[in-house]
């Protein structure tokens, strides 16, 4: 009898230990995929609301310089007047003082040479610029690993700040109803950190443009919403190819009653429109399961 009791107790202990191990394994995998919070250890960097990772081979400042040089050289390779390390001058529409933007041209006045950019990284397929912010980066998509650029940099090194990227669930020509673009909320204010500026109503009202450069054309979007959402995976949670689902999703945006949300109800977005959703993390451990979404509709 005593032996049976000991065996029963041993089984209960092993079962409990197994459940604890499964719990922490699941939490660990969730943190790796969607981000968590914590203090960085030695040799690590952190972002607001994201899991600390080892430092990249290059510093964040060096990677930022790499992004800037990449664009300057890409414009120069396309026939612009830009010299390496200098920003190209803006072209002004005669008599207006406004910057001209021709199809396929960057706001600096020269086309972007994507063939050159692909010599830096084959996965670059677009470039995104959000005027009024420092957001001015290549957009990448890994062919097999959707989370690759969450933890890898433009030069292939592992660690922060990663890259601005989309997943293979989205086409690279931005023809999907909703193209979701991810970027880290870096404490230094780089990558997608300045999306948080759109939480301020005055900034939101004054800055509404997003430009996406593709090899064959430039897409112009108008921002219509900026709000805090949960951390669900949008493309897994909603079938945007179903117009009824898409229409219902758009309605849910306009139905948001959160006073901190900025929604321009003067802009009508329907299931016939194409939008982009820019996603980044929120600061603080309490917000680990929240995301900031900034959404813009393609202008025809």
From TrEMBL:
Keyword Transmembrane: yes
Entry keyword annotation includes Zinc: no
InterPro entries, sorted: Sortase (IPR005754), Sortase_dom-sf (IPR023365), SrtB (IPR009835)
Ranges of biased composition (kind: Basic and acidic residues): 81-99
Gene3D superfamilies: Sortase
Matches recorded under CDD domains: Sortase_B
SUPFAM superfamilies noted in UniProt: Sortase
Domain of life per record: Bacteria
Active site: 184 (acyl-thioester intermediate), 281 (acyl-thioester intermediate)
Residue ranges the record marks as coiled coil: none
Keyword annotations from UniProtKB, A to Z: Hydrolase, Membrane, Transmembrane, Transmembrane helix
GO terms of molecular function: hydrolase activity
Acidic residues compositional bias, start-end: 100-110
Region (Disordered): 79-110
Xref: NCBIfam families: sortase_srtB
Name of this chain's protein: Sortase family protein
Lineage: Bacteria, Bacillati, Bacillota, Clostridia, Lachnospirales
